[in-house]
Specification:
Number of helices of chain A: 8
Order of helices and strands of chain A: HEHHEHEHEEEHEHEEH
CATH superfamily of the largest domain in chain A: NAD(P)-binding Rossmann-like Domain
CATH topology of the largest domain in chain A: Rossmann fold
Number of strands of chain A: 9
Structural class of chain A: alpha/beta
CATH architecture of the largest domain in chain A: 3-Layer(aba) Sandwich
Strand content of chain A: 15-25%
Bound molecules: nicotinamide-adenine-dinucleotide
Radius of gyration of chain A: 21 Å
Oligomer: homodimer
Distance between the termini of chain A: 45 Å
Strand order of the largest sheet of chain A: 5-6-4-3-7-8-9
Chain lengths: 218, 218
DNA sequence: TATACTTTGTGACAAAAGTAACAAACGTTG
DNA sequence: CAACGTTTGTTACTTTTGTCACAAAGTATA
């Protein structure tokens, strides 16, 4: 069962897309949004949208659509976007810096409250108001501040040790950008973002595409 | 049918993970790798690995496993990782810079051959040996060099116009990091990496987790 | 060679996800 | 208010994906 307290995983992952469209529509003062609308924006059929929303228990009005603000508010609550979520980020390299400086995450309630690195040259530097701290402070800080999320942007060979430190610090959710497998206790959730793997899958498409399109002899 | 020339999409996306483990094992001179091994590394059951590999037509040896180098080589060919794929990247901000400077993509055959931005302050700058070019050069350059992939790392409000320019330049595959929907002709493949949406889905888990774990009264 | 292990490939089955269809609900228009 | 178009919630169905189980194929050992 890949369910997550009642809602299938693929549905859950579509909700933020709907949410984003609703916010946009709310800004434009559009009072109602239809499943057709939401579907076109998300690239899924309207029936899919209705099914996804039926897992939640917020209802729309036949002939009209969904109340824009009400549904946006409900999704915000369901996804916990209004709740503040505090995170630490380890590995202040190019990617870590980009994630730290990205303002979009704050709109979803994420606060990156501390940065860590092993490189003495980086420790003490400031990135977006936050100072880069040495690794030995990680476990204690995470524990003291009850940090909810850990973001890993170190090279893969260092990722496991960072993950273990986060676990020691009581962190229960890890967002991992290093291309490797992490071993953690069962109660810890690891979500990996493997961009290189996505690229490799895309690479296959590019090949097949040029094969199909180039020798147009047939 | 979400098949991709015979192989289901989820299987295709697991292949790079297997590939990575095989490369590691090859470096350690391990001659054979079993489906159990591959599965543990990828976080899927061994039967899943065998099924995925059965879509390709490279076979393993019962009682032994898969020939490490042979399978790695076959996956490399199947995924087209050895083929050079030329890409342009538009939007040399924090994320664009990180992607440009990341050496890992080159291992998968990706060459980012040109950078573009609209900001006069960035045009002419150099990022990892590549000069940032003005937007008006995009279409012509893409067409002349038969660029295969476009990478979009501009703010969402600018993404559609960039995508359209890429299409005009004959680009057939777009890797989009802006959190928005892109409308392109059917023959163009868009793969979107929506990190904020992933975060929002994670946010839901964090909420549910703290609810389940904190009030342990029941 | 016989026997005791491993491990593969696959076909049958189970679960999950997506699609389509439609009655019921609603608004609008004349 | 009746007729018509729109849109919902849900059910039934199809397709896709994942899991399991096992015969067959291989290795190792005595
Ligand atoms: N940059 C990208 O576009 C990109 C794309 C895909 C994947 N990734 C992955 O993301 C991760 C980070 O990539 P990057 O480009 O930012 O790398 P980077 O080399 O720029 O940064 C890595 C940082 O981690 C620090 N670090 C190394 N070992 C550490 C340790 N044991 N503890 C704490 N800090 C440590 C380094 O000092 C450095 O600051 C890598 O795993 C990479 O494979 C990056
Ligand atoms: N940085 C992150 O961690 C992160 C995370 C999730 C999503 N994103 C998305 O990735 C994209 C880039 O993020 P970023 O943090 O690098 O932003 P950024 O503001 O640092 O960089 C954006 C760049 O795009 C350029 N640009 C703007 N309009 C343009 C146009 N019309 N044509 C060409 N170039 C243009 C800007 O000059 C700037 O250099 C955004 O869409 C953002 O939402 C970023």
């Amino acid at each position: 069962m890949s369910e997550t307290y009642g809602i299938p995983r693929p549905s859950l992952r579509r909700l933020p897309i709907y949410y984003r469209h609703l916010i946009e529509m709310a800004e434009r003062q559009v009072p109602y949004v239809s499943s057709k609308d939401l579907g076109q924006n998300a690239g899924v059929p309207a029936s899919q949208v209705r099914k996804d929303l039926s897992y939640l228990h917020e209802y729309g009005r036949p002939g009209v659509g969904y109340d824009t603000k009400a549904l946006a508010g409900y999704l915000e609550e369901f996804l916990g976007l209004a709740n503040d979520k505090e995170a630490i980020l380890v590995g202040v390299g190019n990617l870590g810096r980009a994630l730290t400086l990205y303002p979009g995450f704050a709109q979803y309630g994420l606060q990156i409250i501390a940065l860590f690195d092993i490189d003495p040259a980086k420790i003490g530097q400031t990135v977006g108001d936050r100072e880069v701290l040495p690794m030995f402070k990680l476990v204690d800080l995470a524990r003291r501040l009850k940090v909810q999320m850990g973001i890993i942007t170190v090279p893969p060979h260092a990722a496991q040790e960072v993950a273990s430190a986060m676990v020691s610090g009581g962190i229960k959710v890890i967002w991992n950008f290093a291309p490797c497998k992490l071993t953690v206790p069962a109660e810890v959730l690891v979500k990996s973002e493997d961009l290189a793997a996505e690229l490799a899958a895309l690479s296959h498409h590019i090949m097949r595409r040029s094969q199909v399109l180039a020798p147009a002899t047939e």
